[in-house]
Amino acid sequence: MRHEKVDIIFQAAVQVFAERGFDQAKMDEIAQVAGVAKGTIYYHFKSKEDLFSALMNEGIENLIDYAKRNITLYSRPIEQLNALIHAHIQFFIENKKLAKLLLAEAFGTKERQRQFRRQIHEYILLIKRILDEGVRAGEFSMIHPHEMASSLFGAASIVVLHKIYSFEGRERKVDLKATVMVETIRELVFNGILKKE
Predict the structure, then answer these.
(1) Do 32 and 69 fall into the same domain?
(2) Residues 136, 69 share a domain
(3) Cys-Cys with 79: which of 3, 74, 84, 88 at CB 3.0–4.6 Å?
(4) Are residues 19 and 63 part of one domain?
(5) Residues 90 and 22 in one domain
(6) Is 140 strand, coil or helix?
(7) Amino acid 191: pLDDT
(8) CA angle, corner 143, sides to 138 and 106, nearest 5?
(9) 27 CB contacts (<8 Å, ≥6 apart)?
(10) Are residues 130 and 184 in the same domain?
(11) Is 51 inside a domain boundary?
(12) Residue 50: inside a domain, yes or no?
């Protein structure tokens, strides 16, 4: 069982990394926000890079678990893809700071880009498996399922991120209901892949 301090450190790290970015974030500030000594962080993580890597792994694993729980409720590929799109958008809505962090740092240093691609690889493969099954079942038609899976990840992520950023710093609360975003991504994806009669 994971130490509860790690969860507290993760929550603080998400906040600090999301607000400051990786390069500007300081371990002292993460420790302060977490309410722990800096040595406690170094007891669990050998460096800021190590903490960031663990945080990204945890975020992607949680996204994958959330998506899998939703798609297992359905048997047809078209229903599973619908469920995955909704789960993806809902997860990022519920984890706004993590979403900002994941997507902002995806374009960081070459090492972080490589790490990000490695971490989302399993998730992209999950999407691709649904697309491949849809092609086999005659529900979908596409030439490049892997690229379509990557495109779906990107489009669904960016539509949420755009909504989050477009209301940042305004007094009015952002309406982050998933409905419009889910409908938009479904329209974009399904118009491209649904098998034409």
Answers:
(1) no
(2) yes
(3) 74
(4) no
(5) no
(6) strand
(7) 84
(8) 115
(9) 38, 41, 42, 48, 51
(10) yes
(11) no
(12) no
Query: What domain range includes position 84?
Result: 56-193
Q: Could you tell me the CA-to-CA distances from 101 to 53, 62, 130, 169, 192 in Å, in that order?
A: 12, 14, 27, 17, 30
Query: Taking each helix axis from N to C terminus, what angle separates 4-20 and 48-71, rounded to the nearest 10 degrees?
Result: 100
Question: Given this model, what pLDDT does residue 170 score?
Answer: 60
Q: What is the CATH number of the domain that holds 160?
A: 1.10.357.10
Nearest to 73 by CA among 86, 92, 58: 86
Residues 6 or more apart whose Cβ sits within 8 Å of residue 14: 55, 97, 98, 101
CB 103 within 8 A of CB 22: no
How far is 139 from 193, CA to CA, in rounded Å? 8
Q: Which two tokens stand for residue 141?
A: 């038609």
What dihedral do alpha carbons 38, 100, 113, 50 form, nearest 10°? 20
Contact at 8 Å (CB) between 41 and 100?
no
Query: Which portions of the chain are predicted below pLDDT 50?
Result: 1, 171
CB atoms within 10 A of CB 120: 20
The torsion angles phi and psi of 140, rounded to 5 degrees, stand at -120, 155
> 1: domain CATH number?
1.10.10.60
